[in-house]
Amino acid sequence: MAWISLILAGLCEMLGVVMINKLHKDRNWQALTLLILGFGASFLFLSIAMETLPMGTAYAVWTGIGASGGAILGMLFYGESKDWRRLIFIGMVLGAAIGLKLIS
Fold it and tell me: For residue 97, is pLDDT > 90?
């Protein structure tokens, strides 16, 4: 259950990051509301996961999902660079998160 909560925390983190970009462009209350809800839910699920998982592992996986997911969403929806080197480093971040899961 802790790992499911941690993955949900990372996905909510991605929502919050996308809403920061949307709020920067549109300045509307819907984006602000989703930003607050996204980050709020992210912290809630992270705290649930940290009841079982070690803090270092939970935080590293959470930030890895958020950072990699934000970069991938930027490439898919906002025209950010899809350079192969960028993809390799995103893969390295995700690989490190998976490695932490395997040894925890």
Answer: no
